[in-house]
Amino acid sequence: MPFNAFKIGRASLKPGTPLIVGVLNVTPDSFSDGGRYFNDVRKAVDHALRMEQEGADIIDVGGESSRPGSANVAPEEEIRRVVPAIRALRKRSSVPVSIDSMRPQTARAAVEAGADMINDITGFTNPEMTDAAVALKIPVVVMHMRGTPATMQKRPRYSDVVRDVSGFLSRQAEMLEKKGVRRIILDPGLGFGKNLKHNVRLLKRLDEIAGLGRPVMVGASRKSFIGALTGAPVGDRLAGTLAAHICSVLKGAALIRVHDVAEHRRALDVLRELL
Ligand code: HH2
């Protein structure tokens, strides 16, 4: 089902033209690139600019790892990590920026520094995060997660993972819409409280989530289920990631969240000609 087009900063999100969201983790401990852009604003900004040049439509900045078992970061520390990077990036580029955070204080500080979108892995289950989204009047990503990063991989169970995730996403989107949030993206949250079968089912039946009539984002990049399907270590999961993301786009994904921007841009360029 198509969705109504909208803007994220200068980017146009519309059916049939998937956007690439490049990941910038300013953390010491993210699962695939932890430490590379941590405590070094220049390195972080250079990486964001490189991703923009390679074809990223949006840069998603995160200051806290959400890998399974990861520890909580205090809001002050998260703000200290993300705000200088966003501010410095803003000075050099108008590329749309998304803040990957579950904390209202961080979301507000990031938007003040120039962020254009809030990406909440807890799917706006915290009412204060919803209040921030309402007040800030910017697009949001509602992601599904079962449990918390500390506990989410302990025997996740669903009666029907696709129906359960879709139900959660539509309920949260309706709640946000009633409060006045107009631009809403849904994300099934691959790897967040899901085992291999759950992740595969969500990808195979992604058309059901896209069928909710809202834009859908998918983030399979380098995740452990790609490793489980290919036997590849985290540094060698690009081929598997591309397959998962191309399949998602064919099933209606409007945004893909990736670490390897250039390769995804080329793959989407080819796909565009073939469709
Ligand atoms: N995945 C990660 C983090 N944030 N946000 C959305 N909306 N969807 C995702 O699939 C998603 C996300 C995990 O990836 P990464 O940022 O590379 O790792 P870490 O959480 O260890 O920083």
Give structural notes.
The structure is a single chain. The protein has 275 residues and is an alpha/beta fold. The chain has a single domain, classed as Dihydropteroate synthase-like (TIM Barrel). It contains ten helices and ten strands. An eight-stranded parallel β-sheet has the order 8-7-6-5-4-3-10-9. The chain has a two-stranded antiparallel sheet with strand order 1-2. A hairpin with a 2-residue loop joins strand 1 and strand 2. The model has no long low-confidence stretch (mean pLDDT 96).
**CATH homologous superfamily annotation:** Dihydropteroate synthase-like
CATH topology: TIM Barrel
CATH structural architecture: Alpha-Beta Barrel
Order of helices and strands: EEEHEHEHEHEHEHHEHHEH
Unreliable spans are none
Bound molecules: 6-hydroxymethylpterin-diphosphate
Oligomer: single chain
Cα gyration radius (Å)? 17 Å
Helix content: 40-55%
Question: Would you state the CATH class?
Answer: Alpha Beta
**Pairing-aware structural class of the strands and helices?**
alpha/beta
Strand count, sense and barrel status of the largest sheet are: 8 strands, parallel
Report the mean per-residue pLDDT as an integer: 96
Largest sheet strand order = 8-7-6-5-4-3-10-9
Q: How much strand?
A: 5-15%
Question: How many beta-strand segments?
Answer: 10
Number of domains: 1
